[in-house]
């Protein structure tokens, strides 16, 4: 097995900030409700000139500037997203062209909020097997384009953003263990009905608001807590690392109370969980790389630390990955 390291991180967040107070002007909600029920205070919203591929490209460029790698040496690009620029071609192909990584192949990963972890493990497996020497893994979303701004139960939750990581073959393996899971019986808890082969776009589908994200929040909340706990525990067991030795857990940033419940269930102090959803809301596949980046910037992770990333989302999907920083 070829050892894999995570050599650089980058993020991009649109400059436009939308606060809870801004939202209270467009739907029947309040800063108090959103803060207390979710932990979110503000989120970023992409401009009309931006799209998932432009956010992904900006995050990728930051990684490449930091690492200083020759663009023609990039071999694989994976973009995790549930809101691509368009159904096809992939965002990965747009990014490849935008950054000039002309020798790379790439594809998108549709695993909703678990997508970045799915991408990391896919890329790490390719490198471990010797199929490629490096891979750019990006989580990027412009969910503001599929949010129903008349639905207060969902529009307050989400935000736009992108995060990227470069994985390379190295001396020491940093990817210690993972689990990737799916439970298709939960597809109706979070989905977008229109625009695909089942319900193609039509005047009627637009009138019936079928091109917006639909979510059963309370049921999803109940479903994800045990799934996330099991994924964390099973990943530790696989890697033969005690959960007590994991310095930081970086969960998908959906709701602070999900993170609190997971902490209680696992008996781990809440302080060992990374939380930045108050600044960005739920950015789906981008939330874990953005939180990882912030954790490094804030000095919450130092060399040698064990870091657990865990994503969960539509599908239902779940993925956990344990790395040594
Ligand atoms: N402002 C004010 N009131 C609201 C709002 C709002 N924005 N939204 C809902 N309410 C009202 C409801 O109408 C309801 O009123 P009622 O009691 O008079 O009927 C009341 O608040 C309670 O509604 P619930 O939906 O039960 O509120 P809950 O406390 O469950 O919070 C939430 C809802 C925040 C969506 C929560 O269930 C949640 O976070 N679920 C998990 C969602 C999740 O994990 N999603 C992401 C996973 S996948 C991915 O990220 C893509």
UniProtKB/TrEMBL annotation:
<comment type="pathway">
    <text>Lipid metabolism; fatty acid biosynthesis.</text>
</comment>
<keyword id="KW-0808">Transferase</keyword>
<dbReference type="InterPro" id="IPR016039">
    <property type="entry name" value="Thiolase-like"/>
</dbReference>
<keyword id="KW-0444">Lipid biosynthesis</keyword>
<dbReference type="InterPro" id="IPR013751">
    <property type="entry name" value="ACP_syn_III_N"/>
</dbReference>
<feature type="active site">
    <location>
        <position position="252"/>
    </location>
</feature>
<protein>
    <recommendedName>
        <fullName>Beta-ketoacyl-[acyl-carrier-protein] synthase III</fullName>
        <ecNumber>2.3.1.180</ecNumber>
    </recommendedName>
</protein>
<dbReference type="Pfam" id="PF08541">
    <property type="entry name" value="ACP_syn_III_C"/>
</dbReference>
<dbReference type="InterPro" id="IPR004655">
    <property type="entry name" value="FabH"/>
</dbReference>
<keyword id="KW-0443">Lipid metabolism</keyword>
<feature type="active site">
    <location>
        <position position="113"/>
    </location>
</feature>
<feature type="domain" description="Beta-ketoacyl-[acyl-carrier-protein] synthase III C-terminal">
    <location>
        <begin position="236"/>
        <end position="325"/>
    </location>
</feature>
<keyword id="KW-0511">Multifunctional enzyme</keyword>
<dbReference type="InterPro" id="IPR013747">
    <property type="entry name" value="ACP_syn_III_C"/>
</dbReference>
<comment type="similarity">
    <text>Belongs to the thiolase-like superfamily. FabH family.</text>
</comment>
<comment type="subunit">
    <text>Homodimer.</text>
</comment>
<feature type="domain" description="Beta-ketoacyl-[acyl-carrier-protein] synthase III N-terminal">
    <location>
        <begin position="107"/>
        <end position="184"/>
    </location>
</feature>
<comment type="function">
    <text>Catalyzes the condensation reaction of fatty acid synthesis by the addition to an acyl acceptor of two carbons from malonyl-ACP. Catalyzes the first condensation reaction which initiates fatty acid synthesis and may therefore play a role in governing the total rate of fatty acid production. Possesses both acetoacetyl-ACP synthase and acetyl transacylase activities. Its substrate specificity determines the biosynthesis of branched-chain and/or straight-chain of fatty acids.</text>
</comment>
<dbReference type="Pfam" id="PF08545">
    <property type="entry name" value="ACP_syn_III"/>
</dbReference>
<feature type="active site">
    <location>
        <position position="282"/>
    </location>
</feature>
<keyword id="KW-0963">Cytoplasm</keyword>
<keyword id="KW-0276">Fatty acid metabolism</keyword>
<keyword id="KW-0012">Acyltransferase</keyword>
<keyword id="KW-0275">Fatty acid biosynthesis</keyword>
